[in-house]
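>> received
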Amino acid sequence: MSPATRALILADTHGYLDARVLALAETSDWVLHAGDIGAQTVLQALAGPCRELIAVRGNNDPPGRWPGGGPSTPPAEAQVELPGGRIVLVHGHRENPVAARHGKLRQRFPQARAIIYGHSHRLVCDLEHLPWVLNPGAAGKARTFGGPSCILLHIRGNSWRVEPMRFPRT
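>> returned
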């Protein structure tokens, strides 16, 4: 049996990373951040010696705006090959109107197994069609709509399982 891989999917930290989300990162093989990071310190906290960190910029991540600076602004889009398929990360703020967002993302990235986006701060797991469209909601403290949230993606071989996570507000 192939070893299990775990990916933490998050977005919209806006400079603050909830400690409960960070605890999940510390036990994940991959951390995928879909933008509106807000500060280099968030990426520094998420980076670890035993995990891969992939992040894209959101509409609130322009160069020179992060407190504490940083070496560079993340790309607008990223793709990563994981066991069982490709994941695409975008922030999602350019796919409008909102009602057509999932369809537009699926048209734009038909080769993906999952498309991850942020921006809306709303936790959504659209698994009805391939590629899946996942929004982890807000992992910080701004507009969490019920509490900080994220998604865990559990991978074993070609089998993927999505676990949405929402923490109570503190």
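>> Residues 4-166 form a domain with the Purple Acid Phosphatase; chain A, domain 2 fold (CATH 3.60.21.10).
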